[in-house]
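**Sequence, C-alpha cells**
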Amino acid sequence: MTQDLWYGLRQLRRSPGFALTAVATLALGIGATSAIFSVVNAVLLKPLGIPDADRLLVLMTDNGKGEVYGWASPTRFIHWRNQTSVLQNVSAFRPVLINYTGGEAAEQWRSLEASAETFRCLGIPVLQGRTFTPEEDLPTGDRVVVIGRDLWMRRFANDPGILGKTISLNGEAHTVIGVAGDSAALREFFGPQDVYVPFRIDPNTKDQGVNFPIMARLKPGIALEQAKARLQISTGEYRTRFPDGLDQGATFTARRFHEERVSGYRALLLSLLGAVGLVLLIACANVANLLLARAAGRRREIAIRAATGAGRGRIVRQLLTESVLLSLAGGALGLLLGHAGIRALLRVHTAGLPLVGQDGVAVTIDWRVMGFALAVSILTGIIFGLFPALESSRSDLNSMLKETSGRSGTGLRQNKARAALVVSEVALAVILLATSALAMRSFVALYKVDRGFDAKNVLTMYMSLIGPKFSKSAGVADTLLAGLERVRSTPGVVAATTTCCVPLQGNYDLDAQIVGRPAPSRPQDAIDAGWTMASSGFFDVFRIPVKRGRDFTDRDNAGAPPVAIINERMANQYWKDADPLKDRIMIGRGGGSPAFKDEPVRQIVGIVGDIRDESLADSPRPMIYVPQAQLPDAETVLFAHMGPTGWIIRTQAEPQRLIRDIREQLRQATGLPVGEVQSMEEVVSRSTATQRFGVLLMSVFGSSALLLAAVGIYGLMAYAVEQRRQEIGIRLALGATASGVRNMVVRQGMVLALSGIAIGIAAALALARLIAGSFFGISPHDPMVFVSVPLILGAVALLAVWIPASRASRVDAADSLRYE
C-alpha cells in the first residue's frame, strides 16, 4: 500500500493540470456536501449542551386530529406537576418584556416568568445566591427576582453586593435573590434573559386558558414511553375533574425537547442534503470521465505493468489508490471552503434555524463533520475510480503493446462509458435544476401572495404595560390614547395604532358563539377563530379594506356599547344566508379561562378583508377584532403578561428615519420605553427566512450542477475531437466541408445532452409529484419550469459542444494526415 501511495503521488505530480482539475471538481462536490452536513450535525445530531438532555421533555396535548401542540393552561401545569411517578422538575415559563423603573429613565428588559423548578429543569446555572422557593412562587409570595449574568455585568457593574438589594420593576419593588447564567435550552426557547420573576400559579386554579409552554424531566430510570403511557392514562383523570377542559379524543403526551425543537426543520435539511448529494454525484461523474480520458494515455504503461507480472487486481488497486488520493485532497480542500462558505451565509442570516447559535457559531468542524468528510471522500474516490480502473485493467494486452504511442485512436463510438457518464450527469443536473426552479417559483409565489395588508412604510415597536398602573383597562386605554395622539402629530406619520398582535408574528385563538343560535353541545363544536385587539386606525395603518359596516373609532371605549369586527372569511363561513351586521357574538366564554367571565356580548359592526396573519403559506382564517379600550380588566392583565403591546405606525417615507422621534414622543406621553423596533417589511422577510435560505442553497446547487454538466460535455467532446484528428483530416481531405465537420461534432454531442435532458425531465416530473406538498402556489408540473430548464441546459450544452466542434472544423488536413 505504501508503494502504491508513493507511486500515485508521483503520477499525480507528473500531471498537475489533471490533478488540479480533479481536486477542484471534487472540492466543489465534497465541500458543498460537508457544509450542509455541518448544519445537519449542529441541528439534528449534536447533543445539547445541558446535562441529561435526553431526559428533557416538552409536555404536549394531542388533539386526536393529527395535531400536537405544546402550549398549556395553569390547570394542566398543576395536573402534570402531580405526575411524580414519571416526571420531575415540571416547569412553566413565559417571556415578557418588563420595565426597569428604578433609574433616571425607564428601561425595557427581557424577563421570564418562571415557576420554581424552571432553573433545574432547563439547566440554568445559579452563579450567586439562590432561585425561587415554592412559597415565593405562589400568588401571595414575596416579590423577588433573579437577574441574568449579562445584566449584572452591564447594568450593575458586577456588584458583589447585589444580593438583597431592591430594584423597581414595573413600578414594584423586587428583592434580588440570585444571579443566573445561561443555558442551551433557554437560549433555544427564548434567548438569554435579563431577569427572572416567579410565575405565581395558584395550585387551586381552575384556569384552563392555554397560553404558555411546560417542560419537565424524566425521572431517573423512567423511559419516555413509560412517561407517555402514564400521561395518556392521566388524561381521563383530568377530564373527570374538568369535563370541558379537553376536546373529545384529546390526550396528553410528551416529546423530547431536541426532537420538538428541530421537528419543523428536519425535512428541509434532509432535502438540502439530498440535493447536494446530486451535486456530488455529478462531480464524481466528471472526475470519472477525466480518469477514463487519462487512462487512454496510460494504456501502454498499464500493458507493460501487466506484461511484467502485475495481476488485474494489483492494477485496479493502484488506480483506485490514485483516485482516493485525489478525493482525499478534494475532500480536505472542500471541507475548509465549505465550512467557510456556510459560516459566511449564516452570518448574513441564520434563517431561523435552531441550535446553530448566533451568526452560525455552533456550526463547527467537529469529529462528526470530519468523519463524514473523510467517509465521503473515500467512498467518492472508490465510486468514481472503480469503473475507470476496471475498464483500464480489462484492455487487451496485445493491442496495447502494438500501439506506437499513448493515443488509442478511438472515436466517439469507442467512448461509450464516457458518453454514459455524461448522459447521467446531464440527467442529474436536470433533476436538480428543475427542483431548484420549482422551489424558486414557489418562493416567489409565496412572497408575492396577496397578504391582505400593505407592509410598505410601516414601523412596529413594542411596549410593556404591566404593573399596578395598568391593572385596569382604563389606565391602559388612557396611556395608549395619549401615546397615539403624540405619535399621530409627529411630522411624517400618516397613521398610528396599537395592537396585541402584529400580522405574521402570531395572535390568539378563541372560541366564539353567535347569540341567538343554539349553543354547541361540545367545546370543540364552537366557532374557532383568530382574535386580535386593536385601537382605532388598525385597518387604516395596514390598509385592510372595510368591506361593510364601519371601522373602530376612538369613541369605542369602555363607556360605549361593546363591538367587534369580523373578516370576510368568517362572514362567509358562518353567515352563509344571514347578515352578520345584525348579529351579536360572545367571545372566549367556552375557553375555560376565568379572565373571560366578564367578556361582554358584542355587536358586529364591520366586515373587513382577509389577511394572512399566521404565515404567508396559510390561507386566511376566521378572524375577530375587538377594540382595545373595551377589554374587561382581567383580560387586559392576562394579555399584557402574554405579550407586549405593539405600536404600529405608517409613515410617508422610509420609516427608519422617524424611529428616534417616535421613541421620544412615546417616552414623553407614557414615560415608558419601546423596544424590538423593526419595519413591517422586515417582519415579512423574517417570516420567509427559512424558505429563502433553502431556495438560495438550491439555487447554488443547481448552478453548480449546470456548470459541472457543461464541463462534462465539453471535456468529452474536446477529448473525442482530439482522438479523431486523423479521421477528421481524412474527411476534410476527401471533400468534407468545415461546416459539415462542425455540425457532425455538434450533432453527436447534442445527442448525448438531449438524451440526458429527456431522462432528467422524466425523473424530475416523478420527483415533483412525490414532493408536491412542499410547493406553494404552483403546480409540481409547472410549465415554465419544465420548458425553461431543458432550454437553458440545452443552450449551455450547445455552447459546450460548439467550442470543440469549431476547433474540429479548423483542423489542417495535411498536418493531421502527417500526425504520428
